Amino acid sequence: MALLILLGLIICVPVQVVSVEPVPPVVPASGTFEKYGPRVYDLIFDVPPNPWDIRIQVVNGLIDLPLYPVPEEDWDDWLADPEITMGEIELFAIYFFALNNQMWPIGHGAHEWINYTCPECLDARDFRRALAHLTNKTIWSLPQETFIPPVLQEWENPNVTTYEYDPELARDRLNAAGFNDYDGDGMLEYSPGHAIPTPPDPPADMEELPELQGWIITGSPMRIAAEMLRDELVELGIPQSIVIADRGTCYYHVYILRDYHIYADAWSSRDPSGLYEIFWSEFVSPFLEGSHIGYYSEEFDYWFEKFRVATTMEEALEACYMFQEIVARDVASIPLYAYAGYTAHRTNYGHHAGEGVYEGLKWEGFVNELGVGFPNFWTYLNAHPQGFGKGGTLRQGLIYGVESFNPVHAEWFEDWLVLDEIYEPLIKNHPYSLTEKIIWLCRNWTIGTWEFEGKNCTKIRFKLCPGILWHDLTPFTVEDIAFTFAYMKDEVSIANYWAVANYYGAITTANGSGWWGPQLPPDTIDILYDVESWFALDWIAAVPIIPKHIWQGKDSVTWNPEDHDAVIGTGPFMCRKDGVVGRPDHVSGEYTHLTDNVNYFRKKIWPDVCDAGGNVGRDGVVKIVDFMSVSSYLFTYDPRLYPFLPPWPSEWVVEGENLLDVDENGVIDTDDLLEIGVHFGKPWPPPWYVDC
Known about the structure:
Number of strands: 29
CATH architecture of the domain at 93-269 and 333-337: Roll
CATH superfamily of the domain at 93-269 and 333-337: Dipeptide-binding Protein, Domain 3
CATH class of the domain at 93-269 and 333-337: Alpha Beta
Distance between the termini: 23 Å
């Protein structure tokens, strides 16, 4: 899924110099992970008053996980700090200057679509090329010429048109395209007829250039590059106003008004289509047609869409190389750099009132996801204090708070960190592989084809895992899936449109007896596309399923679930406040608090603790005798109070596992009874646990 990551930026944070042995190990972007959880009771996304405070709060144990990667100037100090565990990382993100191709002189506003026979359009392209020559990328360790980061280097076209930093060449390009100082005032003007400058006598067709409006978010690491570009524009006599402002102001001008020329931007995705969708004419928003880049190119669209419907790697690579070159040739925007370095998290559990039992314990289960780092779905599912199967609270630091709980149109990286814990897709991307997929809401899938308009198109059949409930305990069904894909397409989802643009329809038991084909079982769905594509599973993995019983009939732009206590998903964590499920525990700009989903279908528990006679030895079914066995020892054992309470009953320890501690939190308590109650009368383990 392509996300705006404008706030997941590299912040230059002042740190204390620490030299302590032993040095914590560096965690590579590979390793183990579990598919069952969550392992903590609470997940808090905390926004300190000042982003510079996050590192200090990590060291002091107030925050466990900073959002941003580690600035290069701090690598040595952070590696030497025993309270910080580092992980190697190459981000999927590309940091770049977004150019508004609809605003003169960057684009010729008289033509919405690129017109290569229009002289003004060609002059605007030369203006963009000049801007590329004015951009000094050498200040970054990983300067980029395309929008493909090194972690996806197999897709990168190494032969695209490049623009070395050369202010004199930039001036020559501008002059040749009709941008000169025609009246001798030290500022450039434009002559559509490309008149020869003869100051102080300007040509009759001379036009004053508008002031280039640039925007950059406060705290952005691209501030240096923006200020350098500003200085180059001043030197050449190009009027400009580059403004550093808060996120909301930048968003309003760039994404709503679209009255900007240059914007310090960032974009992230696991695949080329997600990274280049911003140049696709089909990428639309509910506010204005087209992307904020405003680059409408039939040539680009042809190859981009050819890439989307490629059926082999060879076809996909050819198309990918072509659309990269088109964007580079036209300088639709200016890629700056990618990031390779370190991600980090707190090594040990910090000090928090009421959580003393965990204080000082080592954090386990952090997953250094490829291209992402430690802040990700898998970490939130797996992380737990050492020695506790489940326990504690994980605290994620954010630079900006969550703005939207709307999974149809949420855009910010911070929003999706939260939404990914609430809403889940049918399948998930493997955290250590670019190509491998993991069954999630489904037990399995089968890829096939169906005929549409005389051509073969992709059809994928999914069989759902049983026992999945929405947070409000409504059963999850295939009709929710069919509704989601159609709704995301009809509502032109900002976050998911690229993944549903070629969705055609779905076959379920409700409509499967007509011309579609044979009727399907209630737990099975066929998802149909109007093209055959090698990337269909990537599209599936990008779409978060939303509940039909909540979203049906809603206007996705004006209706927000957080306003109606309706933030309801299937994920491992949920919104719950004042006892109301679906109501966010959230204060804008301060924090967002999620609690574990006690009915999560992938819980890491074993509620079948004894056989039919109440003895050690599970009988495969959760019965009343399991209640009775746990109840008989309720609160009689707590490792925190040993030796004041008796030791664990040795007859209930099997191969080191304390059977009565159902949720593995180190104590026999009412939480264990709750886990038995949730699964009462059901076989355990469910047969699909092995499959899923």
